[in-house]
Specification:
The complex is a heterodimer of chains A (277) and B (402). With 277 residues, chain A is an alpha/beta fold. Chain A is built from twelve helices and nine strands. In chain A, α2 packs across α4, α3 crosses α11 and α5 crosses α6. The longest helix of chain A has 24 residues. Helix content of chain B is 43%, strand content 18%. In chain B, α11 links the parallel β9 and β10. Chain B is globular and about 55 Å long. The chains are: A alpha/beta (277), B alpha/beta (402). Chains A and B meet through α3, α5 and β6 of A and β2, α1, α8, β11 and β12 of B.
């Protein structure tokens, strides 16, 4: 079993949903990232999604765009990000780490080189938002050999036919984008979400993560009722802007957010399916 | 060069060899499928094509002339130079050929809102124009830096009823406007049609925009044959994203005797690093939905570009150009800001035509190319746009206050 599979198996046996914080690597500065990852795990994170900074983050809202710009002030590269994963692995061999970003930095490094380096670093998955399954033939085999899960998105606009296609290519878990729009968008309709996840489950046994629009402990709890994993990005990353120049303060504030979500998610699951909405 | 069946490109999934494709987030895949179906259906639909032809004739003013620049040809003492006068189209550039077509598709699809990105503002103006005519809501994304360089076009778009959003992210130029338009589309995908202005972006845009722009080459080919009884020896067009160049080149691809030359912006000089010439000095990568030549650093980050012309100030290029370059069917050169300005003045003084700064790059190359050819040979240059929008930029560069 891969690290991702082990983690979801354990959570399932405990009737808990995975809490997956997203942080942009190198934001607000490169030295802050590995201590932040450890702090997030300590606060209750089950899996870390580490953003690879990109100059043109087309699928992201202003919060993560600015995070990319802060990280790129220091020239944080994909090579640096893999170095951070390796550093994190020195003291944490259990928490899965997934990179999230755009294809071009991976393409520039070379898929073969990326797969080798990522495996050495102890990376578990790769989510490139601008790489749909149709275009991933070059990459899929290399990732498979390196035991790196290609993680794909399903959106509210994805047809049933495409869900089946995505499910065939996906490993690790499937990331359901709960809203049309960019990261950091506003509202979330949880009853529509439940129906949608049910439809996706017709096509796959993989765990379903939900991201976009999870702003606080209350929404995280609502999503945890119906999803296998709750991904929270902008709600954490916006703190990096607030604490720019104060990485310790940022790690502390981010940990508080994660801890609050952890408590609410576990409470909702423990109190049975009909939790407060 | 082995024989290539050009009509077979792109393939069903939008690939031109290794280039093109559809590299977008999942939310847009459904909309792109819908667009592709509509495009394939209506390009073969007699009513749609009749409406398009009618609009191109009655609203745009097509066909525009193929003009024999006799005085310039004589001065250059080489090939005969012919200009395809896209500058005479309504709104002053080739861009409207495409916006007319895409807006008609938007109508057929029942979309009520149109968005577009723009660099020099010509595509924005052409989009705002068709939106006004069809009564559609219109939002144009433009880099803040470009809104400053192209104030007359910003005003024009607002007069036409469009909302112009000055994009403040990244380098605040065309690429950032494109990012922002994509973000809008992903959010409002149900009621919004994104009119991309160039032959880049995810499939089917590169093929669709090419097909709408190919009217340029079809007319030019027929006009040249009628005027001279033969095909031209060379075609020259400027390349930013590359829509005016593809529009001219595409109908000539099977005419093996016709050489094709795309002219990129060398800005302050290729060696300075401050340029916009991905085909001449970049390498393949993935940006804005397609694989193509890009300007990027060693880590795959897109780098800032520079050109005196906002319309060429873009780090990528249409994937079909990348394919034409690799196959050797077309070749690509770059001219500097200074050379472009020289081309601008030369055409204005010699032929009484004030060209856009983008177009001036093509003219600058012709000043070098024509003298190397014989007087019985000919070149068609795509005079892609008029220069009214650039008067401020030219004046500023030359220390003149208007």
């Amino acid at each position: 079993m891969t690290r991702i599979e082990q983690r979801f198996a354990k959570l399932r046996s405990e009737n808990r949903a995975a809490l997956v914080p997203y942080v942009t690597a190198g934001d607000p500065e490169p030295a802050a990232t590995v201590p932040l990852m450890h702090a997030l795990v300590k606060a209750g994170a089950d899996l870390i999604e580490l953003g690879v900074p990109f100059s043109d983050p087309m699928a992201d809202g202003p919060v993560i765009q600015k995070a990319c710009e802060r990280a790129l002030r220091y020239g944080t590269s994909l090579r640096d990000v893999l170095g951070m994963v390796a550093e994190f692995r020195k003291t944490d061999v259990e928490t899965p780490v997934v990179l999230m970003g755009y294809l071009n930095p991976v393409e520039r490094m070379g898929y073969q080189t990326f797969a080798e380096k990522a495996r050495e670093a102890g990376l578990d998955g790769l989510l490139t938002v601008d790489l749909p399954p149709e275009e991933c033939d070059d990459v899929a085999g290399l990732l498979e050999n390196a035991q790196i899960a290609p993680i794909f998105l399903v959106a509210p606009t994805t047809s049933d036919e495409r869900i089946a296609h995505v499910a065939r290519a996906a490993r690790g878990f499937i990331y359901y984008v709960s809203l049309k729009g960019v990261t950091g968008s506003q509202t979330l309709d949880t009853s529509a979400l439940a129906a949608r996840l049910e439809a996706i489950r017709q096509h796959t046994d993989l765990p379903l993560g939900v991201g976009f629009g999870i702003r606080d402990a209350a929404t995280a709890g609502q999503v945890a009722r119906v999803a296998d994993a709750v991904v929270v990005g902008s709600a954490i990353v916006r703190l990096a802007e607030e604490f720019d120049g104060d990485p310790v303060g940022f790690a502390h504030a981010a940990s508080e957010v994660v801890a609050g979500m952890r408590v609410e998610m576990d409470r909702v699951r423990a109190s049975g399916v009909e939790a407060s909405v | 060069m082995s024989k290539i069946d050009w009509a077979a490109f792109p393939d069903a999934r939008g690939h031109f060899g290794p280039y093109g494709g559809r590299f977008v987030s999942e939310t847009l895949m459904g909309a792109l499928d819908e667009l592709q179906k509509a495009y394939e259906q209506y390009m073969g639909d007699a009513d749609f094509m009749a409406e398009l032809d009618h609009d191109l004739k009655q609203f745009v003013g097509r066909p525009n002339p193929l003009y024999h620049a006799e005085r310039l040809s004589k001065e250059l003492a080489g090939a005969q130079v012919y200009f395809k006068r896209e500058d005479l189209n309504h709104t002053g550039a080739h861009k409207v050929n495409n916006t007319i077509g895409q807006a008609l598709l938007a109508k057929r699809l029942g979309k009520t809102r149109i968005i577009a990105e723009t660099g020099a503002g010509q595509h924005g103006v052409a989009t705002a124009t068709v939106a006004a005519r069809l009564g559609l809501e219109c939002v144009i994304y433009m880099g803040e830096e470009d809104t400053r360089r192209q104030t007359p076009n910003v005003f024009r778009m607002r007069l036409l009823g469009a909302e112009v959003v000055a994009v403040k992210s990244g380098t605040r130029t065309l690429k950032d406007a494109l990012n922002e338009a994509m973000r809008d589309w992903v959010t409002n995908v149900d009621d919004t049609f994104y009119i991309i202005g160039t032959v880049a972006g995810p499939h089917p845009y590169p093929a669709m925009v090419r097909d709408f722009q190919a009217v340029i080459g079809r007319e030019a080919r027929a006009q040249h044959l009628e005027m001279t009884g033969k095909l031209p020896d060379a075609l020259v067009a400027c390349v930013g994203g590359g829509s005016n160049a593809i529009g001219l080149f595409h109908p000539f691809l099977d005419d093996e005797s016709v050489e094709m030359i795309g002219v990129e912006a060398a800005g302050a000089g290729i060696e300075s690093g401050r340029h916009s010439a991905p085909l001449c000095a970049g390498q393949p990568g993935v940006l804005h939905g397609n694989r193509t030549y890009l300007m990027e650093d060693e880590h795959g980050q897109i780098v800032g570009t520079h050109s005196v012309s906002a319309g060429l100030d873009y780090p990528g290029v249409g994937p079909e150009h990348a394919w034409l370059k690799d196959t050797g069917r077309a070749r690509y050169v770059a001219v500097t800001d200074d050379q472009a300005l020289e081309g601008f003045h030369r055409l204005t003084r010699t032929e009484g035509i004030i060209p856009a700064l983008e177009t001036s790059h093509a003219i600058a190359h012709v000043l070098e190319l024509a003298p190397t050819m014989r007087p019985d040979q000919s070149i068609i240059v795509n005079l892609s746009g008029r220069g009214d929008k650039d008067l401020n930029t030219v004046a500023e560069r030359e220390g003149i206050t208007l």
